[in-house]
Amino acid sequence: MRLGVQVLISFVITQHVRDVEIMLKFKSFFCCGTLIRNKDTVQFRIRNIRDLSE
C-alpha cells in the first residue's frame, strides 16, 4: 500500500457571472486555462505548471 502527499498548484480568479466577458478575455490573453461556471460565479483556472511558469 502506498501513501503519500500530492501537491497541486493553480492560479484562480473568481468573479460574479455578470463578469463572464472579462473572464473570457483572461482566457484569450493567457491562451490557456479553463472557465468553470457555478450558480453565481465563474472561475478562470490554470493548473498546468508549464502554463503558469511562462
Automatic annotation (TrEMBL):
Coiled coil: none
Highest taxon of the lineage: Eukaryota
GO MF term list: endonuclease activity
The Homing endonuclease LAGLIDADG domain, residue ranges: 3-50
Xref: SUPFAM superfamilies: Homing endonucleases
Pfam families: LAGLIDADG_1 (PF00961)
Biological role: Mitochondrial DNA endonuclease involved in intron homing.
Name under which the protein is recorded: Homing endonuclease LAGLIDADG domain-containing protein
Protein source organism: Cronartium quercuum f. sp. fusiforme G11
